[in-house]
Specification:
The chain has 638 residues and is mainly β. Helices cover 7% and strands 54% of the residues. It contains 6 helices and 33 strands. The strands form 5 sheets. The protein has a 22-stranded antiparallel beta barrel. Strands 3-8-9-6-7 form a 5-stranded mixed sheet. Strands 1-2 form a two-stranded antiparallel ribbon.
Length: 638
């Protein structure tokens, strides 16, 4: 497969040093201005915004969703964002060789590019490959993650066929709160972070920086030619990784009607891997965003958002320049939330979204830019024990024309602690630039992938904890797959085509409780992600999705000492659509401990894969064995 199809794309390379200098200069001017200011944004600990693009309390959300806050992150001590996401229901991870390597996130059995990823409200990801660089987003800079499972194109457009993952970077909790950490671990790992944040009467600010480096492992156990396999090369060496990241956020409340905030984040990576045409990459992801909010009346809010995300990558082969894949994404939106319209109860949302994607690099795409604009509307209401959320959206795309999607969600409170939910939604995924225009592969006649999803859920909030169960069926049509039967000057070896169908059925269970002094939480997912193309692969499982996954977390505190363990299990999966290459199931055990030896100081120790299991989530690509990380953390209480 061509290198451009196998990995995220990027943009022209901008040095981390120049970005650091620019953000540092901005910080010098920002900090004095807001040092006596108060945070204008809403307290995110008690609300969810991703499920409706409006603020909802957690018990109002009708969609199947998971929220991970900073306390969860520090308790679980994940090594990476992928490790953290993999602890949640419905998520399956495929990684190409350890830390920093290409990572795919499958949500409810859909494709890796069927997940919309937002960072502080700005859509991120490569317009060429269609996926986000999860491996490059540092956990130390994350304050909160909201995961909404199910079709959400009716609110967000393309990419939200399987769900939405929104990442919020850290925000201030006091007038001035610094933080810092340093860690060492297996594979010569060294990582550190530092930052400070504050708020006052009218505004707030936050500055965070982090560094992560490791010698890594041998990413691929591929075999030399002519047998080939995996990466089609044999390079039995350690494939290291280095990441630097910086984020800057700030906001200001001008008066009771107007407030604004802005965010800038950048990560830069240097990644060694095993490959035939390239084996080293310099990459970066940059996100810039701004929001202006106007509240002319108590029950009316008008919000304008603008943003840009860039996915940046330059590849080398043994130190020699190989290629560059570049994408830029500009977005803007205008949204009005109206509490009452003509005397009706509920919340009405009307909005307009605009997006432009561009590709800049040395690969000759037939078309290197496209635009999308959309109108959407939503209504949320409650009538006694009944809750309703309905949305409708119309997208117009310069490449494939128009697409209309909708969603209807309903909830009924059987008792004060038990609620049943049901929903139906349609979604679509626009083909990527690689699907459309990559030389000798892309097909400019492709249409969007479409889906229809039914879901039924039951959730409880008894005094002993929480629990939920969700069953769903998702039918996806016009799946974009490689079609070897295509011929002609554009397809000398076949190319992309809309020919496949799939049906994904599943059940998710989740719950948490306190048993004695132990905090217990767990989840399990059963999936049946089947190919329904009608050809030789009809009835086969979609590749790289485990049919059964489960996880149990147990944590306990003894005053300043806390201990915990996680046990996770994954059934077998296949690495190909023909189901010829089976990847065995496996179970992992992780242990963790933390000791707060002073008010602001804590030492953490995590041991992952303690039984040294050998496993693969992508064929031929190795995963870390038994490993550990020791971290010293400084975090004063606000």
């Amino acid at each position: 497969m061509p290198r451009g199809l196998a990995r995220s794309a990027g943009s022209h390379h901008v040095s981390f040093r120049s970005c650091t200098l620019a953000l540092a200069i901005a910080t010098v001017f920002l900090v004095p201005a807001v040092s006596f200011a108060d945070e204008a944004s809403t307290d995110m600990d008690s609300v969810v915004v991703t499920a409706s693009r409006t603020e909802q309390s957690r018990n109002q959300v009708l969609a199947a969703s998971t929220v991970l806050d900073r306390a969860d992150i520090e308790r679980l001590q994940p090594r990476s964002l992928a490790d953290l996401l993999g602890s949640t229901p419905g998520v399956s991870i495929a990684n190409n060789g350890g830390p920093g390597k290409a990572t795919s996130v499958f949500l409810r059995g859909t494709e890796a590019d069927h997940v919309l990823v937002l960072v502080d409200g700005v859509k991120v990801g490569s317009a060429t490959s269609g996926t986000a660089a999860f491996q490059d987003i540092p956990v130390d800079q994350i304050e909160r993650i909201e995961i909404v499972r199910g079709p959400y194109s009716s609110l967000y457009g393309s990419d939200a066929l399987g769900g939405v993952i929104q990442i919020f970077t850290r925000h201030p909790e006091g007038a001035f709160v610094p933080n810092a950490s340093i860690g060492v671990g297996s594979y010569d790992t060294l990582r550190g972070s530092a930052g400070f944040a504050g708020r006052g009467t009218q505004g707030w600010y936050s500055v965070e920086a982090s560094h992560d480096q490791t010698d890594g492992i041998n990413a691929c156990r591929g075999k030399p030619s002519p047998r080939g396999g995996g990466c089609f090369t044999y390079e039995p060496d350690k494939d290291g990784y280095r990441n630097n990241a910086l984020s800057l956020k700030g906001g200001w409340r001008f008066d009771e009607e107007w407030d604004a905030d802005a965010t800038a984040t950048r990560t830069e990576g240097r990644n060694h891997y095993d490959g035939t045409s390239s084996n080293f990459a310099e990459s970066a992801t940059q996100v810039l965003g701004g929001r202006l909010r106007y509240r002319p009346a108590r029950d009316v809010v008008v919000t304008a958002n603008v943003g840009r995300s860039e996915d940046l990558s330059t590849d080398y082969e043994d130190g020699t320049y190989a290629d560059t894949f570049n994408t830029h994404r500009d977005v803007a939106s205008l949204q009005a939330d109206i509490g009452r319209v003509s005397g009706a109860t509920g919340l009405t949302t009307l909005g307009f979204d605009w997006q432009r994607d561009r590709v800049v690099g040395n690969t000759d795409y037939l078309v290197d830019a496209r635009r999308n604009h959309a109108l959407f509307a939503q209504w949320q209401g409650e009538f006694g024990d009944n809750s309703v959320q309905g949305s409708l959206r119309r997208d117009e795309n310069s490449q494939f024309g128009g697409k209309t999607t909708g969603s209807l969600q309903y909830g009924y409170a059987l008792t004060k602690t038990l609620r049943v939910t049901g929903s139906y939604g349609t979604a679509f995924k626009a083909p990527t630039f690689n699907d459309l225009y990559y030389p000798d592969y892309g097909n400019p006649d492709l249409g969007p992938e479409t889906s229809r999803n039914w879901e039924l859920g039951l959730r409880g909030t008894p005094g002993w904890g929480t629990w939920s169960v969700n069953a769903f069926q998702n039918r996806i049509d016009n799946l974009i797959v490689f079609d070897s039967s295509l011929s002609g000057p554009l397809f000398p070896f076949g190319g992309a085509n809309n020919i496949a169908k799939s049906r994904i059925r599943g059940v998710e269970l989740a719950g948490d409780t306190t048993l004695g002094a132990w905090r217990l939480s767990g989840n399990a997912t059963w999936l049946q992600p089947e190919d329904e193309s009608g050809g030789s692969t009809d009835g086969n499982l979609l590749p790289r999705r485990a049919r059964r996954t489960a996880r149990l977390d147990a944590d306990r505190s003894f005053g300043p000492l806390s201990i915990g363990a996680s046990i996770s299990g994954f059934s077998y999966r296949y690495d190909d659509t023909a189901n010829a290459n089976r990847l065995g199931g496996y179970a992992l055990t992780d242990l963790r401990a933390a000791y707060a030896f002073a008010d602001a100081w804590k030492v953490e120790l995590s041991a992952n894969n303690v039984f040294d299991r050998h496993y693969e989530t992508a064929r031929y690509f190795n995963q870390p064995g038994r490993n550990w990380l020791l971290t010293l953390r400084y975090q004063p209480r606000s």
